[in-house]
Amino acid sequence: MTTLSDAELSNKKLAVGLTGIFLGAFGVHKFILGYTKAGIIMLVVSLAGGVVTCGIASFVMGVIGLIEGILYLTKTNEEFQVTYIDAVKDWF
Fold first, then answer.
1. Mind listing the pLDDT tens digit for each residue in 38-59?
2. Contact, 89 vs 81, CB < 8 A?
3. Quick check: 62 and 25 in contact, CB under 8 A?
4. Which of 11, 3, 18 is nearest to 29 (CA)?
5. Which stretches within the chain are classed as H helix?
6. Which residues contact 91 (CB under 8 A, 6 or more apart)?
7. Rounded CA gap, 24 and 64, in Å?
8. CA distance 85 to 4
9. Could you tell me the pTM of the whole model?
10. Residue 32's closest CA among 77, 85, 74, 75?
11. Cα(52)–Cα(55) distance, rounded to whole angstroms?
12. In this structure, are residues 42 and 26 in contact, taking their beta carbons and an 8 Å threshold?
């Protein structure tokens, strides 16, 4: 279990939420949380899948990132800590 101060937790939640919304298709928010495997999956699907599907896969990853970013920002600091820092919930 990681112990973060309220300020650190708020900053991390804000950073993860905003990168999820704006750069979600590339999995940047996953890398910030330390979810390397999920971040690589999003990055590869967006780039390689986007080329193969003429951008449809990138769009889908962007929508997933947008949803996750909104979810991160709407959680309280305690819920965010328990769900994404302590429990390591990779998706949604």
1. 999 999 999 999 899 999 999 9
2. no
3. yes
4. 18
5. 6-23, 28-33, 36-44, 50-52, 56-74, 77-80
6. 38, 68
7. 7
8. 10
9. 0.89
10. 85
11. 8
12. yes
